[in-house]
Amino acid sequence: MPQVRHTPEAPTGTRPLAPGAGIDAHRHDNHQIVYARHGVLSVTTGAGTWIAPANRAIWIPAGTVHEHRAHGSTDLRLVGLADNPLGLTRPAVLAVGPLLRELIIAYTQDPSDDGPERARLRGVLLDQLRRSPEQPFHLPTARDPRLAAVCAILRADPADGRTLARLGAQVGTSDRTLARLCRAELGMTFPQWRTQLRLHHALLLLADGLPVTTVAHRCGWATASAFIDVFRRTLGYTPGRAFTL
Q1: Residue 28, beta-bridge partner list
Q2: Tell me: the pLDDT tens digits for 27-62?
Q3: Cβ neighbours of residue 129 under 8 Å, at least 6 residues apart?
């Protein structure tokens, strides 16, 4: 990451981001919820990347060095928090239901408002955050150079369908070693990581307006129906509804 900017207080408010625009590496002394009302937002730290469409938000604990990136035209909503309602000391993706969505939008609309009504709104928002389940939508970063090389190959072409053995042969190691490294460093199996990668990439392509069938093939699914099934089971809605929520 480039030089890290320190912002003592995480801002609360709105920030529109053009497709591909972002906020460079920075950290702040309090916690933050980041939510994309429209578009898709990615947050990257040294531990990996978290991606959130419109029914997800990203929790960023105090002191975490991170950068944002917009995919599609993004209406970014930021909520700075002095307290930690989730008790989490690492980033996380959270489910955002209809009520929490409207609370975030209303609370970030006028950050200068310090009246009692907005204070009550904040209390309800915190209550809803505490009830929001964490979603397993994190793409971790490998540290071992052999596994990192395989991950880089697949990031460059998520549709690459080679087995772990064939990928290992390209980087000079065995599939058994790579499988062990996946569990130790990524906290998941190789097929699970590859599915996460493909879903992350699919969200970015959908944000760019590509048709569902094109996205499915570019991300390695043999058919659009297979892609739609995995997408719906993971995110709770179909790819065609991804940007109409």
Answers
A1: 7
A2: 999 999 999 998 889 999 999 999 988 889 999 999
A3: 33, 85, 86, 94, 100
Question: Rounded to an integer, what is the distance from CA 26 to the centroid of its chain?
Answer: 17
- Looking at residue 84, the DSSP 8-state letter turns out to be -
What burial class does residue 15 get, using C-beta atoms within 10 Å of its C-beta: 0-12 exposed, 13-18 middle, 19+ buried? middle
> Which residue bears the tokens 């975490």?
64
Nearest CA among 207, 214, 212, 215 for reference residue 243:
207
Rounded to whole angstroms, the Cα distance separating 233 from 43 reads 23
- How many CB atoms are located within 10 Å of the residue 121 CB? 15
How high is the pLDDT of residue 2?
Answer: 53
pLDDT in tens, 77-96: 999 999 898 999 999 999 99
- Domains with residue ranges and CATH for the chain: 5-138 (2.60.120.280), 142-241 (1.10.10.60)
- The dihedral region occupied by 236, where left means phi > 0, alpha psi between -120 and 50, and beta the remainder, is left
Cα 177 from Cα 53, distance rounded (Å): 34
Q: Look at the pTM and tell me if it is higher than 0.85.
A: yes
Task: Give the residue ranges of DSSP H helices in 110-223.
Answer: 116-130, 145-156, 164-171, 175-181, 190-207, 212-218
CB atoms within 10 A of CB 127: 13
Question: 33 by DSSP, 3-state: which?
Answer: strand
